[in-house]
Amino acid sequence: MSSSHAAPSSKSVKFYSASLSAGAASDSKFVVDIVNRLEERNRLQVPIDGVDRTPANLAPPFFGEEAFVWSRFREQFQPLANDMEDATVPTADKPDGFENFETQPNYEGVIDRRSPSLEAGQKTYHVKIRLTETDDIVLFESPSHVVSLDAEEAARVQEQNRRFETRPKARRTADAEAQTRDLPCKSRSVNTECIHRQDVASFVSNYDMYDTYNDLERHTKEINVADSASKLEITTYSREGMEDIDERLNRNANFHLSSMILQRLLAGNVYREQQIRFRNMYPPDPCREDIRYLYRLDVLWTYRTVETLGKPVASASWCPANGDIVALAYGIYGHTGSDDRGCGFVYVWNIKNPVNPERRYRFDCPVTCVAFSRRTPQLLAVGLYDGRVQVRDITDTTQTPLAVSNRDRFPVYQPIWDLKWVEFDNEGKDEVIAVSQNGWVMKYTLTIGQYLLPYPLLRLDRVEGTPEGQTSTGTSAPADQQPVRVQSDLHPQALCVTIHPVQKDKYYIGTDEGAVHWCSINDPFQHLGVLQMHSRGIFCLEYSPWSPRIFLTCSGDWSIRIWIEELPEPIVTLCTGFAPVQAAYWSPTNSTVIASVTRSGVQLWDLKRRSSKPASETTLGSLTTALTVVRFTNCGRCLLVGDAEGKAHVCALEDMPFPPHFQYRELQSALYGKLVTTPELLTRVKRMGYLGY
Description:
This protein is α+β, with helices and mostly antiparallel strands. The protein is about 15% helix and about 25% strand.
């Protein structure tokens, strides 16, 4: 390769005279270097084999292919004076949109950043680059096969469609839409070995069978039959050293789960209609013509087992998260003989299986009370006759308690008559308040370990003098004629406990002397107040679901009394005759309905009706069987009644009044109606204002 110099007239690069003179006169090394390089580039030639192979100029021609030839450049461009701003260029072969190229822009004050040595008054040369639009490049095209009705060819397309539909059909077609291809299918076959069968016969004599059974171990079991005094004997045979199949099945958790599900299915075939009534799937029609308010109880089924026959139902608690689950405590009631105080049971029943309980817990002493937790519904607190408290997790299939009370720190040996879960904000801890026969009020905290952390809150003392409220004797005889009461114990028995529905740290305790003590968890060993409400022991105290200031109490003095906080006298008194009231509760669906239980029957009271006698009284079981427990279900349409024989009857409330829309207003009007005969008390109640939530 060789290079030679060419004539400047035939091959050279020149700029506008004004720009060239400005570049030659410039002191910038950068501008002078660019001009020299361009001139040297245009003087070079590359001949190869006698042929000029010099590369063409990289800059596109501005006025055609020979725009940069000096001779053509001089002919086509004549600068006007020395002012670069007024210089114009020819307009030949200019595309559209380049009209502004005829005028050279004003570059005064513009400094090239690549030449920091340029001063503000010096001018630089500029190169113009033209950008033109290229042809469109189609990457993907999906032509449409749909024609709008407004298009010109719409009529022609409709005619083609009509001819296609009316053509002679040579093949079967179907109108269907599809976006994918048909799924290809593949046929497969599997070869297996042939199963060979063989008939085998054997002869066994009576002597062989006799010798065989004598060599086997014989086990005979007796099973009690429900509702019958007879027993069923079952004999099983096993080889020596062979594991008993019954023990192995009892240790299998999957077998117990499968058995429970199977029992639910079988029970559903028998109790289907009763379960539908319990769930209240077909509520009564309020528009029917034959409406009668009879306050009737219809027994749906009865919870009973052979193991608990003769064990009184001491307590019952419905699960707050699942209204189908109820826990029953079997233990002691009243003056139970010492022979029957050997053991106790807690059974967890489900309405899906009214025949067999789904959880069975056995204790070495009678059980007195049970309660489900509202914060953690699977936890069940159990109070025992020997003063212990246990917490069970019903989701655990084992018999191991979650936690038990520790007697090493604070021993309690008297019966626990009632307990409640603490519901106020206590840093997320699960705590239980339990009251015992010796007057102690204990708080147990569930910890990580196996023991409950005990904390004594209070020990009740006998009320001295004349407390505010009702007289303890219930008579208005002179002081010299009243009987002298001899105190056998300085500490009364705590029979029931209730937590305030709004002030969760405040609790009420009913005692055997007919007084109610109210205290606070935040103030241990302190009394907030005491009120004499009955002349005998108070068995139950419950607030109305529609008012945080109205509550009822039931006692052994044969009466149920309704109270308002801050009033020392009852506003309504309901008498049952000559029988102590074991329990009484408000209906969760009707604000004026109250259910109570005595030894002889179940009473339903309606405050809108007369209060001299209950609206209805129902006897369950035999006449000699005492009733012990009554509880409304969570839905309020059914009632659970327990007796002293270990049976729990689930009853449906039939022919009941329909729940009012404004529950508190109905309760208020019913109470005002009861106070018509006592205008002074009525005036005091009205002055208290609104008592609802």
